[in-house]
Design brief:
The complex is a heterodimer of chains A (355) and B (386).
Chain A (H helix, E strand, L loop, with lengths): L3 H17 L2 H6 L6 H10 L18 H13 L6 H13 L9 E4 L8 E2 L5 E9 L6 E8 L2 E8 L4 E2 L10 E9 L3 E4 L6 H33 L1 E2 L2 E2 L4 H31 L4 H29 L10 H11 L6 H15 L1 H9 L2
Parallel strand pairs in A: 1-4
Antiparallel strand pairs in A: 2-3, 3-7, 4-5, 5-8, 6-7, 9-10
Helix pairs in contact in A: 1-3, 1-4, 4-6, 5-6, 6-7, 6-8, 6-9, 7-8, 8-9, 8-10
Chain B lengths: L13 H20 L15 H9 L18 H13 L5 H17 L2 H12 L5 E4 L15 E5 L2 E9 L9 E7 L12 E7 L5 E7 L5 E14 L3 E2 L13 H5 L9 H11 L5 H29 L5 H25 L10 H14 L10 H11 L4
Parallel strand pairs in B: 1-4
Antiparallel strand pairs in B: 2-3, 3-7, 4-5, 5-8, 6-7
Helix pairs in contact in B: 1-3, 4-5, 7-8, 7-9, 7-10, 8-9, 9-10, 9-11
Chain lengths: 355, 386
């Protein structure tokens, strides 16, 4: 993800995020009034439908450019359904469906949840943890039918939506499909199903997590140099230095593995065993980095970092919540472990070295 | 100094794949001949002069060095592939590995022409073993506390004192050693150390073995009794050796040998679990796979950045910090994950032997080549702290 055009698109995104969604400003906001102008700005720049070809209503950016936007969104702890709309547009486009304007999300968002497409052409199922569902107008669905996977677009209002939210305060809803009539639907292309959506969502969340960790490291190092205790900056204490070095290790791991997975999808654009290996590894290792990284950063900041007024929680709680979307690290680790076990010991090193 | 970490996305170029197949074929042949047993990781620590010469004949030592010194002018990524394949096979490369990884590059940079022409081609042919002479009884992580002195005499220097924890010294042909040529100054305690090339056959050198807790003989004490070193064996700036260390260490810190040292127990774990592991074992294995894949992607990325002429010093230190901690914990994790397996699993003997060996060597992994604490200090400084 180091191409020039990726950087240009990510640069546009960064300017909009800084102008409309500065984390410190949002943290002080009394209500959600910042959301509407922010969404308008990202929409005007064509970011939410970046992964939708122009003939289907999007801006036709590359996968690499979209991932670069998501990394930047992670660095700003962006809290609108931007990643979700990107993935929804990508899902619909795979089935040749046009994307509507406005915010979207995708369902299911957890690998053990199912939505079925019935003979009567309606959708049924109850799925957990659908990110930002209550903030969207539409949901892109990867459903199952006896004849194969179906991609469908539904109006959010036609579904049952509960009032759940993540620890970070973002909507995350149980969505109930009770024979919901989709607005549009189409058979998914061969080899494209619910698992494909989980893998794509996992790479997106990994890239966002790495971005959030980058900001967390920068905030923590700055604070350690500024904060005086025992008559010197706490960053002078070896115990604090060692913790920050460990944090840097987690950030580095997340950056490297999420970058590798995003690069694999962007280069190959197929969801084969290699994509599974990369995406699952990224989600596992980035979730581990989020767990470790959040606790180290909070330790550096002490009490001030545990307050509502401090910006740190916007990053830490968000990346901790992302662990649960599109398959948590335990789920993917079991899948990856089974995959490696099926291949056997003699195939393992060639598999690792093939990447 | 910045908190911006960079890991370029490096894919190994096609020539690496062909090379990898060559290396695997060579290793398979050597295993068939009985040169070494890939299931006996302890063998990887032994010195095999004949084997090193065959590797040199293949062109796999000094791969990145200029052809005029016997090198092959290939890329760091090609060298990377060779290094990881030998490591994973537990092949005995100890004889030439230090010379190939770090001593040769130092000679290339600092040695006078006639020494380069005399020694480098012999390293490339797999004929020479190098030892690093840094630690002393009063100077380990605190390198700048080194006391062993080099005193200026006519046409050279005389060394008196000793170096310790010197791996390979009992078989080595040459040492690259750090000796005190001046006192440190108040302003700069790093001042006063100089790097020398020492022919281990020079009169006055005694090598005394120090046995490790594994029972292996690797460490030594090297005693210098007024040993004469000619002027042209000074490597780099007199009193300024500390300036020569930083970017070179990136090569030493980030290679595949920094996370693959106990890899064999992971292969035995996969063998032990079989094709249909229970959910606990599958999850445990999957996490290890993801962590290993991450480390390798980081390490390959650093190799690629070095090839591109960048200096990813902090990133390289992070690879070693994360990598050595991972390979150190690996045998303990494998032990936990195999705790509920039936006693009669097919590879029980090999698994138990390898776990015992890996468990015994594990403590050294976060000490050798720069301790975890020193590495983290370097990382912290790179982040702008201190």
């Amino acid at each position: 993800m180091t191409g020039e055009s990726d950087n240009i698109v990510a640069g546009v995104a960064a300017r909009i995020f800084a102008d409309f969604a500065d984390p410190q400003t949002i943290n002080r906001a009394r209500d959600g009034a910042w959301k509407e102008p922010f969404w308008r700005a990202v929409s005007d720049a064509g970011l939410p439908l970046a992964w939708v070809p122009e003939q289907l209503g999007g801006s036709g950016a590359s996968l690499a450019e979209g991932f670069a936007v998501l990394g930047t969104a992670g660095r700003f702890a962006v809290a609108i359904p931007l990643a979700e709309t990107l993935i929804a547009g990508w899902l619909l486009a795979h089935a040749g469906l046009k994307s509507p304007s406005g915010a979207m999300t995708v369902a299911p968002a957890r690998p053990l949840d199912r939505i079925t497409f019935g003979k009567d052409g309606t959708l049924s199922g109850r799925v957990l943890g659908v990110p930002f569902a209550s903030d969207t107008q539409h949901i892109a669905v990867a459903a199952e039918s006896p004849t194969g996977a179906v991609v469908a677009l539904v109006a959010t209002n036609d579904c049952g939506i509960d009032e759940g939210q993540t620890p970070a305060g973002d909507a995350s809803n149980v969505v109930t499909f009770d024979r919901v009539q989709p607005l549009h639907h189409s058979a998914a292309p061969a080899g494209f199903d619910r698992t494909t959506l989980m893998l794509m969502g996992s790479v997106a969340r990994s890239v966002q997590t790495a971005g959030a960790l980058e900001t967390i490291l920068s905030l923590s190092a700055t604070y350690a140099n500024d904060r005086i205790a025992f008559e010197r900056p706490i960053g002078k204490f070896q115990a604090v230095q060692q913790n920050l070095a460990r944090l840097a290790g987690e950030v580095a791991a997340a950056l490297a593995v999420s970058g590798s997975a995003a690069d694999t999808l962007a280069q190959d654009n197929v969801f084969d065993d290699a994509a599974f290996f990369e995406a699952a590894s990224a989600k596992i290792r980035c979730a581990e980095a989020a767990t470790e990284g959040a606790s180290i950063a909070h330790q550096v900041f002490g009490a001030i970092g545990f307050t509502k007024e401090h910006v740190l929680h916007r990053f830490t709680l968000r990346m901790l919540s992302w662990r649960d979307d599109f398959g948590n690290e335990s789920y993917w680790a079991a899948e990856l472990g089974k995959h490696v076990a099926r291949g056997g010991a003699d195939e393992f090193w060639p598999l690792v070295a093939s990447r | 100094m910045s908190t911006n970490l960079q890991f370029d996305q490096i894919r190994l170029p096609p020539e690496c794949e062909a090379l990898r197949q060559d290396v695997r074929a060579f290793l398979a042949e050597e295993i068939a001949k009985g040169t070494f047993d890939p299931h006996r990781p302890g063998h990887g620590d032994s010195h095999d002069r004949a084997f090193s010469k065959r590797i040199g004949a293949k062109g796999w030592i000094g791969m990145t060095w200029p052809k005029k010194y016997g090198g092959h002018e290939r890329s760091f990524l090609e060298r990377y592939v060779v290094t990881e394949e030998f490591r994973v096979a537990n092949a005995p490369v100890r004889l030439h590995f230090v010379a190939d990884r770090q001593s040769g590059p130092i000679l290339l940079k600092y040695a006078p022409e006639h020494i380069k022409a005399g020694i480098l081609p012999r390293i490339c042919r797999g004929e020479l073993c190098f030892v690093i002479g840094m630690s002393e009884s009063g100077s380990g992580s605190d390198l700048f506390a080194a006391k062993t002195k080099a005193t200026k005499v006519e046409k050279g220097w005389r060394i008196a004192g000793s170096k310790t924890w010197t791996s390979n010294a009992h078989v080595a042909d040459y040492m690259l050693g750090l000796f005190r040529t001046s006192a440190s100054t108040k302003e700069d305690r790093r001042h006063g150390l100089t790097q020398f090339l020492v022919d281990m056959k020079t009169p006055g050198i005694t090598v005394n073995p120090i046995y490790q807790m594994t029972g292996q003989h690797d460490f030594n004490e090297v005693v210098f009794d007024d040993v004469f070193i000619p002027d042209d064996h000074v490597m780099g700036e007199i009193d300024g050796a500390w300036k020569q260390a930083t970017s070179e260490l990136a090569y030493e810190r980030s290679g595949p040998e920094r996370f693959l040292e106990t890899f064999y127990v992971m292969l035995e774990l996969i063998r032990a679990l079989g094709s249909e592991p229970d959910i606990r074992s599958a999850e445990g294995l999957g996490r290890l796979v993801a962590q290993l894949h991450t480390l390798r992607r980081m390490s390959v990325s650093v190799a690629g950045m070095l090839q591109a002429g960048k200096e990813p010093v902090v990133e390289a230190s992070i690879v070693k910090d994360l990598g050595t901690i991972w390979e150190q914990k690996l045998p303990h994790r494998v032990r936990e994950l195999t705790a509920f397996l039936a006693p009669e699993i097919g590879n029980r003997t090999t698994l138990d032997e390898q776990l015992a060996f890996a468990t015994t060597i594990a403590p050294k992994l976060t000490i050798q080549g720069g301790t975890t604490e020193i590495l983290r200090g370097i990382i912290a400084r790179g982040l702008g702290l201190r």
